Amino acid sequence: MIPSAPMRSTTSVPDDGIVVDDLPGTTEVVVAALIKHAFGVAMGVFAAVVLVALAAVGMAEGDSTPANTFVWMMRQSFLPGYGPTVPGMVVGALWGLGIGYVLGFGAALARNRIIKLHFWILNTRARLSASRDVLDEIS
């Protein structure tokens, strides 16, 4: 006869994941954390592609297009050196990589911390509920 496996196994908490195994019943929740550097690089590449594409459209269509107006406003207000020229596209790609990386890294960090906080609150509520039952039986 094969012995039955236990309903819940002990799991170690990985560095990149959040494991909550103190939920009622046999429910176990595992949420993978976003890898901050990879998400930052992905967002940086996306932002660089968007900025280069807008500059290319602005360069191809001329002065009175919405894309060219957007490029001009970004150049004047936020991104020095960015423009509807080939050197301006290179500068825009560098700006996009840098700004996108920082924003992506921050977004992944915030998302991971919010999920961790949420599961910590769930775990604390469950432990408080269990300790209330024990304290009620003592008195």
What does this structure look like?
- It is built from 3 helices and 2 strands.
- It is mainly α and 139 residues long.
- It has a domain at 35-122.
- Strands 1-2 form a two-stranded antiparallel ribbon.
- β1 (17-20) and β2 (29-32) form a beta hairpin.
- α1 crosses α2 and α1 (36-61) runs antiparallel to α3 (86-138).
- The longest helix has 53 residues, at 86-138.
- It is rod-shaped and about 80 Å long.
- The chain starts with 16 loop residues before the first strand and ends with a helix.
Provide the spatial order of strands within the biggest beta sheet: 1-2
Give the DSSP E fraction (strand runs of 2 or more residues): 5-15%
Shape: rod-shaped
Beta strand count: 2
Mean pLDDT: 81
Uncertain segments are 1-10
Q: Count of helical segments?
A: 3
Which secondary-structure class do the elements indicate?
A: mainly alpha
Rounded to the nearest angstrom, the distance between the terminal CA atoms is 45 Å
Percent in helix:
55-70%
- Strand and helix order: EEHHH
Assembly annotation? single chain
- Major sheet description: 2 strands, antiparallel
Radius of gyration, Cα only, in angstroms?
25 Å
